[in-house]
Each structure stands twice: as structure tokens, then as C-alpha cells.
Design brief:
The chain is an alpha/beta fold and 344 residues long. The protein has 16 helices and 8 strands. Helix 2 links the parallel strand 1 and strand 2. The structure holds NADP nicotinamide-adenine-dinucleotide phosphate. Keywords: Oxidoreductase.
């Protein structure tokens, strides 16, 4: 099913969220969660902590946002082997600075790429990208790529099945990337242009949903470029569902009021949503192949949108791979080696 109607969405939101995956110990494993200081990411980090990994790395954009969350998690779970790593996804320099630390890890079993944002206004990062495009797509791609060598090494050395989980969204079902962007000489540049980004109705909802389409395409491409069989890395996207969190903190006016009503009626708690991240990261360990390149929703591997799977979406997905790798290659030469050695 590559489509979720509004009625289906509401029905899904009204049913109880299935219980968290049970019976999986993370003993000896290393787990990283981005955007772990609040919301769904924080709750996912707690689920990992109570399953006893060797090390849990919680990522946050700065000390002030991150440190209290680490202390709170230690207190709430009793789990102490937690590190705080700082990184701001709106700065390529900040993402680049994490590579050496990643390389020094002994192993890496689970990477949950959860950090993302939505904004109502058009803003440009110091790297020249519209903020949502950089945080939710490009920096996610750069950051995830850095882990691939370590995760492949973990797969080989420990016979493990490391997973990269991208936190996507069911909102990706409700829009498409416009044909003019797909047909443009460079789709990413088209989407990033001030002319397109400031058109009526793009910032806020549409841009956020587009960014989730792009990121979902990218995680699928990572899988397609990785070795098909173990030792390899499993890449998947997951939908946490509509949840209470800080995500809509910047929404104002009528839209804020609409969200408030919708939250009252339909939202899961952040903890309930985080169960889906947990499932995408450690569920179905006996059926790893089914998860590879998949889209997880309500604890099931299902289809992402018809747009992504259709002819136009696939055209864009292929184009996007080349364009994204081009951008990241300019940001950091080291990504070219990663593509050459591990993703060709
Ligand atoms: N809540 C929902 O209804 C819903 C539905 C579908 C999908 N999702 C997805 O679920 C994931 C978690 O979102 P959430 O709902 O838990 O929202 P949230 O409470 O706002 O958490 C988002 C996390 O991402 C971090 N983040 C944002 N921009 C960042 C940056 N530039 N650098 C580093 N970290 C950054 C935030 O850090 P700060 O705290 O410092 O801002 C926070 O830790 C996101 O990918 C979101 O798109 C959420």
C-alpha cells in the first residue's frame, strides 16, 4: 500500500500503539541516536538504554540542550554508559567534525537518524541551503555516510547486522515533489532556490514533507548501493506516527490552533511513537532481509508512497543520488572515498 488516506491516518492514530519489542538484549552493542535530547528521540534512547547496550551515544545540537537530557535518562533508567556528542545539522562543519570520533568507535550497531525540524519561514544556513533541506536531507546524508565504513566493519568483525534507521514521516504520502523540480537541470538546486522556496505554501508543511520524501529516497539509495547480503548494513525508514513533541514549536496562528486540536484528538505520546523507532532498529532480527530498504510503519515493513515508487519518483531518486553525492563530495572530499569503496 503506497498511499495512506486521511481516513486511514485517523484510524491508525486512534488504535493503540503496539507494545515495544521485547526479548532483544543489546549487550555488547553500540547505539547512536540523533536529536536524542527531546521528543521521540529521547524516548527511543531510553528504550535502547534499558536493553543494556555497551554504549549509548545521545546526540544534541549543544551542551545546554543535551546535558540535562543525558542526566535525566541516567536517572530514569539507571543506565550509566551514555555519552553526549554535540553536532548541529544546520552546519556542515559541525557534521564533518564528528567523522573522526565515529572512526574511533570500536563498533557501531545501530544509528537512528532522528533529528529533524520544520520551520514556517524561509531561512538559509551559512552553507547556503534552505534550513530544512540541509538539516533533514543533506546533513542527514552526510552524517549517515560517515558511519557506513564502521558499520560494515562491525558486520564483518562481529557477524552483526547493523542498522541505519531514518526517521521519516507518514506526511510523505500526502505530497510529491513537483514535476518542474524533477525536470529541472538540477533538482536539489531548484528546490533550494529562493524563487521556489518562497512561493506561497512551500515553507512549513510542503517543504517539511518534501524533505521527508528526499531523505526516504536517500536511505533507499544507500541500501541499493550497499552489498545485497550479509555482511552488510540494513537501511530503513520509519514512521513514528503523529506524536506530541517539540516538533511544531515554531508553528503560530491558525495552524498552531489546528495542530493543538489535532494533538488533543489524535496524537500518540512521544514514547508511543518511539516504539516504532525501536522496532525499526531491533525488530525482525530473524528476518533482516525484509527490513533492508524498507519503510516501517506500525511495526510492519510496508510500502513508502506511490510517488516514490512510481516512474517520476524513481527518476528523481536516481537523480537525487547523483546530486546529493555531488554536493556532499564538495562539502567533504572524504565522502568520495566512501562512495568509491563502499557504495558503488
Ligand atoms: N512528532 C510528530 O508528529 C512526528 C511525525 C512524523 C515524523 N516525526 C519525525 O520524528 C523525528 C523526531 O521529531 P520529534 O517529533 O521528536 O520533534 P522534536 O521534539 O522537535 O525533536 C527533534 C530533535 O531534532 C533535533 N534537531 C533539530 N534541528 C537540529 C539541528 N539543526 N541540529 C541538531 N539537532 C537538531 C532537536 O534538537 P533541539 O531540541 O535542540 O531543537 C530535537 O532533539 C523527526 O525526524 C520528525 O520529523 C515526528
Amino acid at each position: 500500500m503506497g498511499y495512506v488516506s486521511q481516513a486511514q491516518f485517523e484510524e491508525d492514530q486512534r488504535r493503540p500503539m503496539p507494545a515495544p519489542v521485547e526479548g532483544v538484549s543489546l549487550e555488547g552493542e553500540v547505539v547512536i541516536v540523533t536529536g536524542a535530547n527531546t521528543g521521540i528521540g529521547y524516548e527511543a534512547a531510553k528504550h535502547f538504554a534499558i536493553r543494556g547496550p555497551k554504549k549509548l551515544i545521545m546526540m544534541a545540537r549543544n551542551e545546554a540542550r543535551g546535558r540535562p537530557a543525558v542526566e535525566k535518562l541516567k536517572q530514569e533508567t539507571g543506565f550509566q554508559n551514555v555519552e553526549l556528542w554535540l553536532m548541529d545539522f544546520s552546519s556542515f562543519e559541525s557534521v564533518k567534525a564528528t567523522k573522526e570520533k565515529i572512526d574511533q568507535l570500536e563498533r557501531l550497531d545501530i544509528l537512528v537518524e532522528n533529528a529533524a525540524l520544520t520551520l514556517e519561514d524561509y531561512t538559509v544556513t551559512k552553507d547556503g541551503w534552505e534550513n530544512i533541506l540541509q538539516v533533514n536531507h543533506l546533513s542527514f546524508g552526510l552524517h549517515a555516510m560517515y558511519h557506513i565504513p564502521k558499520m560494515l566493519e562491525t558486520a564483518k568483525k562481529y557477524g552483526a547486522n547493523p542498522r541505519i534507521v531514518l526517521v521519516s514521516s507518514d506526511t510523505h504520502y500526502w505530497t510529491r515533489v513537483p514535476a518542474e523540480a524533477i525536470e529541472a537541470p538540477n533538482s536539489l538546486e531548484f528546490l533550494n532556490s529562493k524563487e521556489y522556496s518562497t512561493r506561497e505554501g512551500i515553507m512549513g508543511g510542503q517543504r517539511y514533507m518534501e524533505s521527508k520524501i528526499l531523505a526516504t529516497m536517500l536511505i533507499r539509495r544507500f541500501q541499493a548501493h550497499l552489498p545485497p547480503n550479509s555482511p552488510t548494513v540494513t537501511c530503513c525508514a520509519v514512521n513514528p506516527g503523529f506524536c506530541l513533541s517539540e516538533l511544531r514549536r515554531g508553528v503560530t496562528g491558525e495552524a498552531a490552533e489546528e495542530y493543538r486540536k489535532m494533538e488533543e484528538e489524535l496524537a500518540f505520546t512521544a514514547e508511543e511513537g518511539s516504539r516504532q523507532l525501536l522496532y525499526a532498529a531491533i525488530g525482525q532480527r530473524d528476518r533482516e532481509e525484509e527490513v533492508r530498504g524498507g519503510y516501517v510503519s506500525f511495526m510492519k515493513v510496508t510500502e513508502c508512497s506511490d510517488f516514490i515508487l512510481g516512474e517520476e519518483g524513481q527518476k528523481l531518486e536516481n537523480k537525487l543520488w547523483t546530486e546529493t553525492m555531488d554536493v556532499l563530495g564538495k562539502v567533504d572530499e572524504r565522502t568520495k572515498d566512501i562512495v568509491k569503496q563502499y557504495l558503488s
